[in-house]
Amino acid sequence: xxxxxxxxxxxxxxxxxxxxxxxxxxxxxxxxxxxxxxxxxxxxxxxxxxxxxxxxxxxxxxxxxxxxxxxxxxxxxxxxxxxxxxxxxxxxxxxxxxxxxxxxxxxxxxxxxxxxxxxxxxxxxxxxxxxxxxxxxxxxxxxxxxxxxxxxxxxxxxxxxxxxxxxxxxxxxxxxxxxxxxxxxxxxxxxxxxxxxxxxxxxxxxxxxxxxxxxxxxxxxxxxxxxxxxxxxxxxxxxxxxxxxxxxxxxxxxxxxxxxxxxxxxxxxxxxxxxxxxxxxxxxxxxxxxxxxxxxxxxxxxxxxxxxxxxxxxxxxxxxxxxxxxxxxxxxxxxxxxxxxxxxxxxxxxxxxxxxxxxxxxxxxxxxxxxxxxxxxxxxxxxxxxxxxxxxxxxxxxxxxxxxxxxxxxxxxxxxxxxxxxxxxxxxxxxxxxxxxxxxxxxxxxxxxxxxxxxxxxxxxxxxxxxxxxxxxxxxxxxxxxxxxxxxxxxxxxxxx
Length: 497
Description:
It is built from 2 helices and 39 strands. The radius of gyration is 38 Å and the shape is elongated. It starts with a strand and ends with a strand. The protein is mainly beta. Strands 1, 12, 14, 15, 17, 20 and 21 form a 7-stranded mixed β-sheet that branches. Strands 33, 34, 35, 36, 38 and 39 form a 6-stranded antiparallel β-sheet that branches. Strands 6-2-11-9-10 form a 5-stranded mixed β-sheet, with no helix packed on it. It folds into 3 domains: about 260 residues, no CATH class; about 110 residues, Immunoglobulin-like; about 100 residues, Immunoglobulin-like, CATH 2.60.40. Helix content is about 0%, strand content about 45%.
């Protein structure tokens, strides 16, 4: 049976704006240096096409020629990109060049055909967004290159390369884009599976040209001949396949002539993903606050929709908020539990994993993933996973504080009519209790008087409930040096001498 991963589709919208790296897809040579045969002209032609941003940061550091392929653009490059073309020619090889040049702008998802008609006509378009650039020269010569700016997808690592069939193909922050998905002509998505690595299959027509890609694994594999449960690995790429252009190329006899040119395909990097069944769904993360102010005995319970299968294990990582920066970082000691093989059956259709260490008050976030039991899960595998659920708060509690409001001495010898009036504060509505000592000896009230306690369980036998919520009067006191302790029902206390 396949191992499982977390289905986080519900949380996808919370991070779709982070990944913003793009690539320049180019089809055709960026340079051309030819000598025309005497039969056509004793001319030498040199062609160059450059790309840069309109303003820094420049997409490749500076002006640059790019050949067929996918070329990463520096992060945060400005659009549109400025393109520049140059055609230099020297009549009769006399060493004196004449230069013709021009420029163009290239926005995301636009196609630009950079060339000049061979037949002397005006510039022509290949489609509603395709633009030809260059003027006609005499003798005419075709120069050409096809360019498009598309999102740059990168290979996920660790657990982040695993997908449930119901998940988005691209879900990590590095591979999600804020652009509205659209169908881009001449761009298509292809995939291979573990059963067919010798040829590429096109995505279904409904999503084949969609950029950025927002489909699920199920949608991608909808037309595959294999049952989806038999697919364990997919390899994905995005390709640019321009329509044929008219170019200047050698014929069978080595002479340059105008002819139809099949523009080469430019491909993205290949992305490999492991396909699994879904992890148990999240049913909630339940916090338990600390017991007393200053304690670090809080806890978290991760509740899931099903038990673990015999061939899978659970990996969990816990992050705590830094109160200064607001950032969530992995808790420094034992923040990752990588080999969990059993859950607690709650008897209500949910199964729980209880964080094994006690935790201080604060805000927490969690990531989890199920994998095959034989998988070696490294700490870095969690880096690109997204948080599940909302921020979880382990609450702190107010301390127990009390004051002695009134002390009344005994009026007459051995009357035992002295008293101490105490008021206190505590967490919420917890019951308040007090303990009395006289000259260092814990006292017990026998129904009539306070007497020395002689038992062995003073914590449970010598504390008395406040008589009026947050105030009490300890009465029937004779002469003595008294000490009062106050605590709440959770045994959180404060004492004064």
